[in-house]
């Protein structure tokens, strides 16, 4: 009775691997090809027998990782949350849109099969991809029997052996990759957002990117790699050349020349060196004190690991690590070399090394050497040494198929294949043998020595042309022999700094410190070049750019070693512990993320160090909205309007504070804070009253002179609505800067008005201090020069003929009473004064209604009469009133929002008031430019409703 065949779904990591495995297993007989959902991932069908069980095989593939780890939609946008939230924000794996067709193919085929055989690369990353495939396939067929094929080369014996010895996938390997992915995502996203939003727009960085999409990325492996480059650069910069002196001796004879080196090396004390040299010159006879002859061995390299392949390709061919891995991957997929990503540098006893050598006997260059290796009488064979590393996944890199060079190979393919073959032949060869002679002499009590070497047997050096073991042959000397040196000189030299790190040096540093894996090191180096953090010259030596150096300098000045390898090395150690089962996945994740979140919070508190470091290399960007002042601040609460983003404390360019939604511009929710705040920081205290929570309280420090004396300058407040003190100070002090800048003689009357839009001033003028300006005419501080009484009364009402410009002008205007600039006529649009005409100056505080100009025979100006009740049916006073009695003029202050320098947006204008015998023009009154009063508040210092206390003229008297 025949056994019914089972249907087996086979999945490889790449289409080329799927095609190669299908061809080997089917022996290219009865192989059928059909299209899948993805046009790049075809399906190969053939029959095969696994351990006596007939199978109908379907072989398809993915393209690397099938899934991506990402934050939820709420946290994905940069402005959607505080970057610190990313350390605990929910993450999930999903199939991206560009791989949905591959997913559909797997689902359709999995429904029809009983077995799932995973032909992914046999490292941790491949194991993680395997479990992604398992998740998709078992989602539609949970009865699948899941198997793992383990192989290291795309050659017949490896593939058939893997098919007949199927194992189970390794969950621990996959868990280790999950840990790395989540750690890298959370740390990288948080620091990248922090750096980019803090620095990109604050400095002129156009040199590094043609657009404004420059990302200043941070990676847990990327930054320590940059640290190696910067640290070596700093060593070079800090090096101070120092002169030294040494004594050199040479001796010529019939047998040749011997150069003797001073056994002291060199001295930095010139006087001491001269004294010793003079002693030698006075008694120059040299006596041979010792002659040592011994056999020396130069051992071949250990079997080839990924790191060694990258280092040697860089050193021998000046190939980048990225290009080396690209070429090696292509050679592997074509079946010429074994899997190129391996940490193993020792062969297992079961490996048939002779068979590998046997395949190379026909090569026209090294074929003869391979034949000698297999000749027992030649004695050239030696079992390879062990470097002590074994990743338990793949053997060292070695050739798997003979080639004298394929027609489609580039020069790099030839070089990498040659390196792999020669390295393998060298590691199974005897070491080179040489005879080394060392001669020591004495001159006036000073010791000198010379060495010479002759190679007796080259052995592995015959095939490994990349290494040499040169040396010169010394003349013959006997103990006790004396001679007069041919030359005895005192020579000077200068200490030199170390060289910049080469790519091979950098890979060695990363390997030694445990930064990255054999499969990812070249990616980290490439990322530094792509991000403009470092450059590489023609000699493959790295230098940091100004940007890379500034970033490292900033973190170094903070006192943190985020650019050092220790943190990442500890992470890699934890991931390895997860992969072998000595540490649980969640345990490793929690410990690492807690540590890095603390580092992130500390770094953000000390961001000034990063800004100072950048200022050492780059110019500040004066573009409006740029700089660290517009960065995302500390989160205060969840936005109660959009319910999607957080609200964060921010400091605007004019120095004022606000709490705004991070979902801007989609959500424009904002809470304006008092304009008298000097400092504000979000605390860890949570309000027990406000909901929905948590609502974090803010530590405020107010400017003493801008708040009533009954209020403390320090306040722990809540913006959720429960804080009466904060609400009262907002009403008393307003929400924007109302402090006049000091007025110079050439700029009289040009005060700094409130900003536009919904918040404080957004102009580029610097925020002034609390101190009142001084009048340039009389020297007093209670008023400005444009209102000094010592200059006599101002012209009040010019004749009507001069009250307007040329009647043929397109727009009627009158000259400003203060600065002389033309003031165009405008139309009010508020409820009380809609349609009413007025004049106002854009540059100072001049305002007058048109009907006041006409009815009074001239301009009403700042001292014009108050509007009558007839013209103001609600009994609210208009602009331009002149009164000494605040009670008779119930002008009300605005809430601070919407005030602007343009008339239609509620521009505040000053009025003339008599205070202590002087005329004072306040920075702003608290009605709109159209005469619409808004609130009933007065200066708490003098009771005048025309200004707030922060600009009260009585405060400085």
From TrEMBL:
Domain CCHC-type: 775-790, 937-954
Residues covered by the GRF-type domain: 816-853
Pfam families to which the protein is assigned, alphabetical: Topoisom_bac, Toprim, Zn_ribbon_GRF, Zn_ribbon_Top1
GO cellular component: nucleus; RecQ family helicase-topoisomerase III complex
EC number: 5.6.2.1
Alphabetical keyword list: DNA-binding, Isomerase, Magnesium, Metal-binding, Repeat, Topoisomerase, Zinc, Zinc-finger
GO molecular function term, any single one: zinc ion binding
Translocase among keywords: no
Toprim domain ranges (all copies): 7-152
Biased composition (Polar residues): 786-806, 879-888
Enzyme class at the top of the EC tree: isomerase
Domain Topo IA-type catalytic: 170-601
Cofactor section: Mg(2+)
Gly residues: compositionally biased ranges: 748-758
Name of protein: DNA topoisomerase
Taxonomic path: Eukaryota, Viridiplantae, Streptophyta, Embryophyta, Tracheophyta
């Amino acid at each position: 009775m025949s056994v019914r065949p089972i249907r087996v779904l086979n999945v490889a990591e790449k289409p080329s691997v799927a095609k190669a495995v299908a061809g080997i297993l089917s022996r290219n007989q009865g192989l059928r090809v059909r299209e899948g959902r993805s046009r790049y991932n075809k399906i190969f069908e053939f029959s095969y027998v696994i351990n006596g069980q007939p199978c109908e095989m379907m072989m398809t593939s993915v393209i690397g990782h099938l899934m991506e780890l990402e934050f939820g939609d709420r946290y994905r946008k940069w402005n959607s949350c505080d970057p610190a939230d990313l350390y605990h924000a929910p993450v999930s794996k999903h199939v991206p849109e560009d791989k949905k067709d591959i997913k559909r193919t797997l689902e359709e085929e999995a429904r029809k099969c009983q077995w799932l055989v995973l032909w992914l690369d046999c490292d941790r990353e491949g194991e993680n991809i395997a479990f992604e495939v398992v998740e998709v396939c078992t989602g539609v067929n949970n009865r699948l029997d899941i198997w793992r094929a383990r192989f290291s080369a795309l050659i017949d014996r490896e593939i058939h052996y893997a098919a007949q010895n199927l194992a189970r996938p390794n969950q621990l390997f996959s868990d280790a990759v999950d840990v790395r992915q989540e750690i890298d995502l959370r740390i990288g996203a948080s620091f990248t957002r922090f750096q980019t939003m803090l620095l990109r727009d604050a400095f002129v960085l156009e040199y590094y990117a043609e657009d404004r999409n420059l990302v200043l990325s941070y990676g847990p492996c990327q930054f320590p790699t940059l640290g190696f480059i910067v640290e070596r650069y700093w060593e070079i910069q800090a090096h101070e050349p120092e002169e030294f002196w040494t004594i050199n001796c040479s001796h010529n004879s019939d047998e040749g020349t011997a150069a003797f080196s001073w056994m002291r090396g060199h001295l930095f004390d010139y006087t001491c060196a001269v004294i010793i040299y003079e002693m030698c010159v006075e008694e120059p006879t040299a006596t041979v004190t010792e002659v040592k002859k011994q056999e020396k061995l130069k051992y071949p390299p250990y079997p080839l690991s990924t790191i060694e392949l990258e280092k040697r390709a860089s050193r021998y061919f000046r190939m980048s690590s990225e290009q080396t891995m690209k070429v090696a991957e292509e050679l592997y997929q074509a079946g010429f070399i074994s899997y190129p990503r391996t940490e193993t540098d020792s062969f297992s006893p079961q490996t048939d090394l002779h068979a590998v050598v046997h395949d190379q006997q026909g090569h026209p260059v090294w074929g003869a050497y391979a034949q000698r290796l297999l000749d027992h009488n030649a004695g050239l064979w030696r079992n390879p040494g062990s470097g002590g590393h074994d990743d338990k996944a793949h053997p060292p890199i070695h050739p798997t198929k003979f080639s004298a060079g394929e027609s489609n190979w580039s020069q790099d393919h030839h070089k990498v294949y040659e390196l792999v073959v020669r390295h393998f032949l060298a590691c199974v060869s005897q070491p080179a043998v040489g005879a080394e002679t060392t001669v020591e002499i004495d001159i006036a009590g000073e010791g000198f020595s010379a060495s010479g070497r002759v190679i007796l047997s080259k052995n592995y050096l015959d095939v490994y042309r990349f290494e040499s073991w040169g040396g010169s042959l010394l003349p013959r000397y006997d103990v006790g022999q004396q001679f007069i040196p041919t030359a005895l000189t005192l020579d000077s030299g200068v200490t030199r700094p170390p060289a910049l790190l080469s790519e091979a040096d950098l890979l060695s540093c990363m390997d030694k410190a445990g930064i990255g894996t054999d499969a990812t090191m070249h990616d980290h180096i490439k990322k530094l070049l792509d991000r403009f953090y470092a450059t590489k010259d023609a000699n493959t030596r790295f230098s940091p750019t100004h940007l890379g150096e500034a970033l490292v300098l900033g973190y170094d000045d903070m006192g943190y070693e985020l650019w050092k390898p220790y943190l990442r090395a500890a992470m890699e150690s934890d991931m390895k512990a997860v992969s072998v089962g000595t540490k649980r996945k969640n345990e490793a994740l929690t410990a690492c993320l807690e540590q890095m979140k603390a580092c992130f919070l500390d770094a953000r508190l000390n961001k000034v160090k990063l800004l100072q470091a950048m200022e050492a290399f780059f110019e500040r960007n004066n573009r409006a909205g740029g700089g660290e002042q517009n960065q995302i601040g500390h989160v205060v609460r969840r936005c109660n309007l959009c319910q999607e983003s957080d609200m964060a404390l921010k400091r605007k360019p004019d120095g004022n504070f606000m709490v705004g939604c991070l979902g801007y511009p989609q959500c424009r929710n904002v809470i304006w804070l008092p304009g008298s705040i000097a400092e504000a920081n979000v605390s860890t205290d949570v309000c027990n009253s406000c909901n929905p929570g948590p609502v974090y309280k803010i530590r405020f420090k107010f400017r003493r002179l801008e708040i009533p004396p009954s209020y403390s300058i320090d306040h722990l407040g809540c913006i959720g609505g429960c804080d009466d003190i904060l609400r009262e100070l907002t009403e008393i002090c307003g929400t924007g800067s109302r402090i006049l800048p000091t007025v110079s003689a050439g700029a009289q009357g040009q005060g700094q008005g409130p900003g536009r839009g919904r918040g404080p001033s957004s102009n580029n003028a610097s925020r002034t201090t609390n101190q009142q300006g001084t009048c340039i005419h009389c020297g007093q501080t209670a008023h400005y020069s444009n209102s000094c009484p010592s200059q006599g009364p101002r012209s009040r009402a010019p004749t009507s003929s001069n009250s307007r410009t040329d009647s043929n002008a397109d727009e009627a205007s009158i000259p400003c009473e203060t600065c002389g600039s033309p003031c165009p006529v405008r139309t009010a649009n508020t409820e009380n004064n809609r349609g009413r005409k007025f004049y106002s100056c854009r540059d100072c505080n001049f305002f007058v209604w048109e009907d006041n100009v006409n009815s009074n025979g001239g301009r009403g100006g700042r001292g014009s009469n108050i509007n009558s009740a007839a013209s103001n049916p609600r009994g609210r006073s208009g602009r331009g009133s002149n009164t000494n009695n605040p009670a008779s003029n119930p002008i009300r202050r605005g809430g601070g929002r919407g005030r602007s320098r343009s008339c239609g947006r509620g521009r505040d204008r000053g009025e003339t008031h008599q205070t202590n015998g002087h005329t004072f023009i306040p920075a702003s009154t608290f009605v709109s430019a159209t005469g619409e009063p808004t609130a009933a508040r007065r200066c708490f210092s003098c009771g005048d409703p025309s200004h707030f206390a922060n600009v009260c003229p009585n405060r400085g008297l």
